[in-house]
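Researcher: Here's the sequence for the chain we discussed earlier.
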Amino acid sequence: MKAFHFLVLLALAVAFSFVSAFDPSPLQDFCVAIPEPKNAVFVNGKFCKNPNLTVAGDFSISGLNIPAFTGNRVGSNVTLVNVDKIPGLNTLGISLARLDFAPYGGLNPPHTHPRATEILVVMEGTLYVGFVTSNPNRLFTKVLYPGDVFVFPIGLIHFQFNIAKTNAVAFAALSSQNPGVITIANAIFGPSPPINPDVLAKAFQLDNYTVEKLQKLFANA
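Model: Thanks. This is the structure I predict for it:
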């Protein structure tokens, strides 16, 4: 019986460790990222710089006060500050993004972050935001104004849309040093090599001509 209790406790400990382990947890003050040493095996995260060689610049970046270009076809731009931009973020489990939106219609298209929850605060403008739950799919939406905050749970499809006639700016914090992003339309219609049009026609209840047209559009995205 004691052995059984021990195995149960061990199983629970392992389960909880997987639940809580998103990014590697630091075992020191910091682990400034460096490129992989020659012939090293990449497992997860980054290799660490010698702490004695670390400088303040490893923990800093400038320029998030500068508006980004929004003249693209979706009318938005995301400036992500992750571990590739600030090496000192390595193992700290957090990153930041500035989101710029063109006047009415600027859209950060439906997407997911496979490794992070996102918390967003609106600085300028008016955004219509939302996310969709896993099956059965339920939509949560809200109109946000300057100073408003909204949370997008990890892995769920979400979006932000500018509904005002002025530019909009928001900042987002993400619970990973490298949250990743999967933009739904690009992932479905624009991967290389492309998904068989018969599959997408059946999945989206479209004809093959429409699917192939979308594939050509997103292949150049």
